[in-house]
Amino acid sequence: MAKLWEGSFHQQLDSVADDFNSSIRFDCRMAEQDIKGSMAHAAMLGARNIISKEDTESILTGLEGILADLQSGALAMDMTAEDIHSFVEGELTARIGAAGKRLHTARSRNDQVAVDVRLYLREKAEEIISLTAKLLEAVKDQALANAETIMPGYTHLQRGQPIVFGHQLMAYAMMLTRDIGRFQDAARRMNQSPLGSCALAGTTYPIDRHMTAEALGFDSPTRNSIDGVSDRDFAIELCSAAAVLMMHLSRFAEEIILWSSWEFRFVELSDAYTTGSSIMPQKKNSDMAELCRGKTGRVYGNLMALLTVMKGTPLAYNKDMQEDKEAVFDSVDTVIMCLKVFAPMVQTMKVKPENMLKAAAGGFIDATDLADYMTKKGIPFRDAYRMTGDLVALCIRKGCTLGELPLEEYQAVSPVLEKDLYEEISLNTCVRRRISFGGTAPDSVREQAAWVEEFLKHV
Fold first, then answer.
1. CB contact set of 358 (below 8 Å; sequence gap of 6+)
2. H runs (alpha helix) in 191-273
3. Sign of the CA dihedral 311, 312, 315, 320?
4. Is 104 among the residues known to form the active site?
5. Judging by beta carbons within 10 Å of its beta carbon (0-12, 13-18, 19+), is residue 386 exposed, middle or buried?
6. In the prediction, which pLDDT does 10 show?
7. How far is CA 30 from CA 10, 43, 112, 177, 379, in A?
8. CA spacing 20 to 30 A to 248: which of 38, 97, 214, 356?
9. Which member of 52, 220, 261, 277 is catalytic?
10. Exactly one of 156, 278, 436, 458 is catalytic; which is it?
11. Taking a C-beta distance cutoff of 8 angstroms, is the pair 293, 250 a contact?
């Protein structure tokens, strides 16, 4: 296929260099966006009398036919083409003749690829938002079902205070709401059309960039033609949002892996989202969660790749920017696949309340509540803190819990301690009385879930 740029060249491109330069193998996924962008451009050229009405109609009919044939499989992609733009224009010209050669009037591949990528990523951002909302729904439902399931809360992976499992899950729910917001923000900022920026300086033709922007669903055209073709911050921002989302999924996956291990046995994953061992028949491996955790690294790498590609490129367009697509495409593909497996994995996860409660009963996670009880009895908090530490040490020596320690041992520390302390430090009391806004009390968890339900109505 002839190159769109070879008019002044007298020697063919070296075959290895040609393959190195080609982007059709990865930008072919933007065929629909390229054709729709070309249709909007052709309609505008006709409306502005830059090309004839007859040529406009011929171009639009030809492009519609190419899109339909690609979607049906009647037309195969020519992988020897330099890029998707060359393929579409070449196929169009082969079908309708000279009129196809007029399509590229007042347009460069620089603004063409910029609009294609924005259109494609806008659609992918919407898909990621939808899938994240489904995961958020699954997390919220599990949280509501476990609003009274007591478990140990951890800091430094050490048992700290009693919480309910629903509270732990709602922490991830809140992260996911912010992830949705980041993708919404990124999609909003990328929703400007670079079409009509041409190579970098605009054009002498009387084009209507607002018309093409509106036709393609953009909020407006980009305000500077150099910026329109030479920046990829919208792709970087999407990769950044993807990296943060994957970080949250990775942390969640890590906890699911721990919770489903034999050492914890807090949850059991469905067989549909686990695998076995080729040699150890008893194994049930949380491979889907592990893969989500592992794939986070490649999304981080894609963000760093894009930042590095763009850090030293002068204005305007440079061929380095061809590297944007593989990185951002891989990030959106990875995020979408992880979300598709994560939501049903959480939805079908079986919680084991008895094991969580057993773990919560150990580790002296009611110690803070004992110190708070002493403070309410008039003992200064720092003294209460030290006295509670002494009582924990005593329990360790005796091999008992704070709830099992006899009252006389408490009163030996301070006579103000009374029998009601046992109710004060019971695990149920510990979680139910944490009524501060956003706390672990079951009613608080339900309030958080209700807020998420309202949030989801507007996604």
1. none
2. 209-215, 225-230, 233-259
3. negative
4. no
5. middle
6. 60
7. 31, 20, 11, 29, 70
8. 356
9. 277
10. 156
11. yes
